[in-house]
Amino acid sequence: MSAVGLPDVYRYGTKFLGYLLVVALIGGGLIAVGNVLVDVGSFGASGDAGAQAILGIVVTVVGLLLSASGLFGLLHKLIADAAMVGAVAASAEPDAPEQEPAPDAAHAEQTDPQAAAASREQSPRNRQRRQKRP
Fold this sequence. Notes:
mainly alpha; rod-shaped; 5 helices; 2 domains
């Protein structure tokens, strides 16, 4: 049995892919800008070439950190959402329809209050409640 339908899978997947693209574009853009600054700073003949190279290294490191934190954040979101869907599916009522009482049992409950109380005590739901109590 599946806890998530196909439309929900596609909706979640497209949002996840969108987040992944944003993380890749921002992190990759910073890494690219940092590499350009390092290249220009390394080969420049001016006095501030070293400062540009250092700035390029800093921007590249920031891009790497943003990319890594974004990917770890997306992984955490994926696991947390999967655990939530599983917990909700596990706590949901079973899909099996409840059995109808026999006609004579229903008639006995209407005419005899003691029989009604006894049948309620023997119901599976009440047995589960008694077992959960400390």
